[in-house]
Amino acid sequence: MMFPHCDVHDLDGLLWTHVALLSFCAILIVASLNSQLKDAAPYGRHAEPEKTKAWGFPIPQRVGHIISDALPGILFLTMVYLLYAALLPPNGKFSEVRPINLVLLAGWLLHYLYRGILHPLIMPYSSKTVAVGITVAGMFPNLLFSYLIAAQLACTVYPDDWAARPRFIIGVILYAIGTAINRWADLKLRAGRLAMRKHAGQGKVAGCTGSTAAATPSSASTARESLLDADDGEGRVGESRSGSEVVRNTPTQGPRPRGDVRDQYFIPHGGLYELVSCPNYLGELIEWAGYALAVWSWPALAWMLFGLSTFIPRSLTHQRWYREHFGNEYPAKRKALIPFIL
Ligand SMILES: NC(=O)c1ccc[n+]([C@@H]2O[C@H](COP(=O)([O-])OP(=O)(O)OC[C@H]3O[C@@H](n4cnc5c(N)ncnc54)[C@H](OP(=O)(O)O)[C@@H]3O)[C@@H](O)[C@H]2O)c1
């Protein structure tokens, strides 16, 4: 497969730097897939205390995500792009500021503004902290790929009609669809958890400043029961009283022990959640597939594959987790990541 418009190889030394880094990316993709298939990264619902300890001391989860995503995806990316732009020979063919390159750069930045800043600030995480090793493990690939994307975009001269070509147009459409799915799915989880906390009558719902103890197990249980009041007669529950249709769970049988995961988690319903366990990962995958098409470079393709190496194992682990914790209540036909397939 050729990427004919990526002219990195015209610049002395850069080609081999990129070949070496891309080879390393290939190893990283295989290693990430392999390790995460064996063992889920211990954050969120998979953060078992023993495993988490092995990943180092805890740091605030919001800060951790900002460090692992916003620093590389926004700050480092912009610095590398500007540095390359400054280093390129003046009046050379690469040094001109090209709107198409800036649009493609903005696609990356837009994602990281969301993932690196907005998402950590608004999500009501179940835990206040994350192990420092998780932050470092997340930051490393973000640094690597942000460097490669920024360098490649700074050194690529796209044909004048690039924006009118089907590859770019289809890529942008996919990027937009994937972005919309990803944000919708994330926000649906957020709304569901906030609804649970709100009905618990405790917790810092409005500001989402987040706290593990935002809803105590017993109060959250009560909250969930109240969300289940409106059983539609088919074992499914309608809208929560807050008006959110997010929390629609089937009733549980009998009393649950304190600390039940159901106090923090619900079965999401509606839209793509009827088809897959993790539409947020599916959306991000489509987003990066579109980005790879529009950018048409090895780094963008490698980044999409790297996403796949995380989304496949983690969505399978999420799906298994849902089945273990919600049993028959969890829709048996719901796939993990790709509707009707995986
Ligand atoms: N490009 C990449 O390599 C990459 C890798 C990972 C993630 N991401 C992106 O980062 C974002 C977040 O990823 P993630 O792995 O944290 O996603 P996630 O596991 O779906 O969790 C997202 C948030 O929703 C909460 N949540 C999830 N399911 C829930 C449920 N059933 N009931 C109540 N709350 C629920 C989680 O709670 P907890 O606080 O308990 O976890 C967490 O706060 C997504 O947009 C994803 O696409 C990208």
From TrEMBL:
The record's InterPro entries line, in alphabetical order, gives: 3-oxo-5_a-steroid_4-DH_C, SRD5A/TECR
A Pfam family matched by this chain, by name? Steroid_dh
Q: Which GO terms describe its cellular component?
A: membrane
The keyword Amino-acid biosynthesis appears for this protein: no
Acetylation as UniProt keyword: no
Question: Compositionally biased, Low complexity: which spans?
Answer: 206-223
**Domain 3-oxo-5-alpha-steroid 4-dehydrogenase C-terminal, residue spans:** 259-342
Recorded topology in the membrane: Multi-pass membrane protein
Region described as Disordered: 205-261
Q: Which GO terms describe its molecular function?
A: oxidoreductase activity, acting on the CH-CH group of donors
Q: Which residues cross the membrane?
A: 15-33, 70-88, 100-118, 130-154, 166-185, 288-312
GO BP term, example: brassinosteroid biosynthetic process
Q: Which PANTHER family match?
A: 3-OXO-5-ALPHA-STEROID 4-DEHYDROGENASE, STEROID 5-ALPHA-REDUCTASE DET2
Q: Which family would the database say this protein is a member of?
A: Belongs to the steroid 5-alpha reductase family.
> What protein name does the entry list?
3-oxo-5-alpha-steroid 4-dehydrogenase C-terminal domain-containing protein
